[in-house]
Structures are given as C-alpha cells and as structure tokens.
C-alpha cells in the first residue's frame, strides 16, 4: 500500500471557510525591507526578509523549529536590534533598533499573547485584564482592579465578556483551566484596543478543542474590531483556517507568502522538508 506522506503530515487540511478581507488598498501596517538578523556573526537567522502586512489582515507565520519565526516577531516590534535592512511598524520606522520613544509608541498600539500566558496566578482574572492597561498609564494603579480607575475596570469587564469569561472576573487566575487562562491573556492583550495583535504559538500548550476555541476567538475578535493579527503556529489547520494569508520561513528566507486558500499540501511539505 502506498502512503501519501503529505496527507499523513497534514491530515486535516481543509479549504478556508472564511472570506478574506479585501486589503489591497489598505495601508501597510508592518513593512520590512531586506531585514537581516544574526545573533552571532556566522549564524544568520533572517537573511533579507521583505514583508508587507496591511491593516486588518490575519497572517500566520509558519516554519520548522528554529526557522526564525519568533526572531522575526521580535524584530518587528523592536524587542531586539536587527543586523541589517529596515522595519516600519505602525508608522515607526527604524534600522538597527527603535528609539525609546518609538518603542513606547509601538507598545501602546500593540497587544501580545504568548504560548505561556504569564498571568499573575494569585490575582483575580479582572486584575490580570486591568493589568493590560499598564502601558497606557505607566502606573502601578493598573495592577490591581481595586485601585484602578472605574473606566478601566469597566473596559476590562467588557473585554472579559467578549472572551466569555465575565462570570470569572473575581476568580483567581489559577482557578481557571489552561484554555480559559489563555482567553484571559487575550482579553489582557485586547483591553487597550491595539491596532496589531502579535501571538507567538498561542494554542501550543492547549488541547485540540481548547486550542481551536482560542484560535477561533482570536480570528473573530480581530476581524470584528479590524485588528491586524500576526500569529505563529505549528498547527497547519489553524494556519489555514484562521489566517487569510500564510507566510513561511525556511533557512533564513521567506519561502512563500500566499493567501491561505492557495496553500497546498505540497507547499507545506516543502516548508518542513529538511
Ligand atoms: N537570544 C538568542 N541568542 C542566540 N540565538 C538565538 C536567540 N534567540 C533565538 N536564537 C536562535 O535563533 C534561531 C531561531 O530561533 P527562533 O526562536 O526565532 O525560531 P522559531 O522558528 O520561533 O522556533 P520554534 O518553532 O522552535 O519556536 C534558533 O537557532 C535559536 O537557537
């Protein structure tokens, strides 16, 4: 019996079920030109990446372990210096690294969600979401919902409602399941109304059902609010289903950049083939 290895690698790949937004005329919200990053002189991780992401797009970044996905995300938000080329994110353009002021401006307009949600476990769910306002005010008062201004608490409650967790507002974070905690992390990232949401493997530590819930929540909330979503994933079903576009990295290069509806099994097999 012959085995179709592509089918085995990506068994549930289906066609995209949502309508991709028409973003052609929209502004570029992220743009890199010849972006290079090397942590050491002889180890180039990103080798001249040209990438444009337009406002309102939902983009999945894929590639093998170590292909540079997280490095690219960090470069786009100025979390580490780049080695060459340029980045323009939300109108802040920089070469080696953003200035302190640019970094602040970027943080104010972006939300972040990571595989490990980093909630403060002893605090309430509401306090954790209110904490998302910290960058807005630069104030310790945002840390605890008892001392936060009422409009912030209201906003945090509304955002918790959007992720279907309003009834858990006063529970301690550590009383929630992993999937629920990741939804709190999404609320914390969304509470300030960011223009871009960056998510690094947001579903990686969740079971298939919770992971799917979280990804579908991301896609829906970002689409409803017109937020640009850029996420990394090793789950090709998530990438094809919840992103309008897939950008693949391989050996330091941009291997392909296509609408998710056009990505084939063999494209994916090639990305992950050594
Ligand atoms: N701070 C660092 N210092 C030195 N090398 C690093 C650093 N961060 C990442 N690297 C190296 O850069 C390469 C790309 O790492 P990166 O985390 O960007 O890959 P990735 O595609 O996100 O991987 P994964 O899918 O496993 O999360 C790896 O070889 C990694 O060891």
Describe this structure in words.
The protein has 274 residues and is an alpha/beta fold. It has 2 domains: 25-109 and 197-202 and 225-274, Rossmann fold, CATH 3.40.50; 116-193, no CATH class. The protein is 33% helix and 24% strand. It has 10 helices and 10 strands. The chain has a 6-stranded mixed sheet with strand order 6-7-8-3-9-10, with helices on both faces. A 4-stranded antiparallel sheet has the order 2-1-4-5, with helices on one face. Strand 9 and strand 10 form a beta hairpin. The longest helix has 18 residues, at 208-225. The protein is globular and about 50 Å long. The two termini are 25 Å apart. The model has no long low-confidence stretch (mean pLDDT 86). The site of adenosine-5'-triphosphate has 10 residues, from helix 2. This is Phosphonate transport system ATP-binding protein. Belongs to the ABC transporter superfamily.
A few lines on this structure:
By secondary structure, this protein is of the alpha/beta class.
